[in-house]
Design brief:
Blueprint (H helix, E strand, L loop, with lengths): L2 H5 L2 E4 L6 E5 L5 E5 L2 E2 L4 H8 L1 H10 L7 E5 L1 H7 L5 H11 L3 E5 L9 E3 L2 H11 L6 E6 L4 E8 L2 E9 L2 E3 L6 H14 L12 H8 L13 E3 L11 E4 L6 H13 L4 E8 L11 E7 L5 H4 L3 H17 L5
Antiparallel strand pairs: 1-2, 2-3, 3-4, 5-8, 6-7, 6-8, 9-10, 9-14, 10-13, 11-12, 14-15
Helix pairs in contact: 5-6
Length: 324
């Protein structure tokens, strides 16, 4: 029996791309989804969650520790709203925080264009990348070191917890970093993990340079290196399941945060600065929240994770039968 049958619903999937669908509920009502966006969260709360700067403001007002940072504008948007808070102002703010800092798009997802920068040249290069195309706003944030976790919440229950690790490779004493990346992509294909290793990502040479390496460098056998500063599974990162170890107070915290931010279904991303998520919450910060948490890459990391995600989607289908 498939998940739709277990939930007592009928699903019509848009056939051309398979990214959107309609769900007929047992009472005859229709609800919809697109990618990982389900008819679970109110529109206003979802839009706030998508805007990292606004979400950080409201979480801070609620008393949650957030990463110190500020938003800045593209040249085009500076002119539209008559502001001088552009890239130059962002650099002055970065100097005030002290390098390294994090530069990232305000409304981005999947770790795209997030960079840890160490100097003026890197700042201006990556800040301009953040506001290219139609992006209006970018963030400059204090760099925080610690363990990176995602906690997925549905209503009053924590559905999954995992530590996120950046894209990495392990040397064999013969292969170059570039070859090891290609091998990792082949491994993802073999386990049917739908993740594209960012072979040409412009951030990788910067991260390698800080380690005295290049893409054509050969790593020692057993040597493990990270190739990105941000720990996103969609960029080839790894997950360490922590569902059985999360401290009850962290569970309560994430459920409470989700509810107070007006959401039912939410991915809470946080950094534990000292200790682990199995410890009581003392020294931690909320990175951001996600009203449409992607969990397919997590599901592909192992059989147990696939079962967790299957159970989670069943719960999502059941939850969609409740009114907002």
């Amino acid at each position: 029996m498939n998940l739709a049958e277990l939930a007592g619903v009928e699903i019509l999937l848009e056939p051309r791309f398979g990214w959107a669908g309609r769900i007929r509920l047992p009472d005859g009502r229709f609800v919809y989804f697109k990618d990982t966006n389900f008819d679970l969260n109110p529109l206003g709360a979802t839009e706030i969650a998508r805007d990292k700067d606004f979400a950080s403001f409201f979480m801070d007002q609620l008393g949650y520790p957030v990463i110190e940072g500020k938003s800045f504008l593209s040249k085009k948007w500076m002119k539209i709203i008559d502001s001088d808070e552009g890239i130059d102002a962002g650099f002055r703010y970065a100097k005030k925080l002290g390098f390294p800092v994090i530069v990232k798009p305000n409304s981005g997802s999947r770790g795209a264009r997030v960079a840890k920068v160490f100097n003026k040249r890197e700042f201006y290069y990556f800040a301009k990348q953040c506001v290219r195309e139609d992006s209006r706003v970018f963030l400059v944030q204090r760099f925080i070191s610690g363990r990176d976790y995602r906690v997925v919440v549905l209503d009053d229950e924590v559905m999954s917890v995992y530590q996120r690790l950046p894209l990495s490779v392990q040397g064999d004493g013969q292969s170059t970093v570039r070859q090891l990346l290609a091998n990792k992509q082949a491994f993802f294909r073999a386990i049917q993990r739908d993740t594209k290793v960012p072979m040409g990502d412009e951030r990788i040479p910067y991260v390698l340079k800080r380690q005295g390496l290049r893409l054509n460098s050969v790593l020692r056998k057993g040597q493990v290196i990270y190739l990105l500063d941000n720990a996103n599974l969609s960029l080839g990162g790894d997950a360490v399941d922590c569902g059985d170890n999360i401290h009850p107070e962290f569970k309560e915290l994430c459920v409470d945060l989700t509810r107070k931010m007006g959401l039912r279904y939410c991915g809470v991303d946080l950094i534990v600065i000292d200790g682990e998520i199995s410890d009581a919450p003392r020294n931690y910060v909320i990175i951001e929240i996600n009203a449409a948490p992607g969990i397919d890459n997590y599901a592909a990391t192992g059989e147990e994770q696939a079962r967790i995600v299957e159970a989670m989607y069943l719960q999502v289908l059941m939850a969609m039968q409740k009114p907002l």
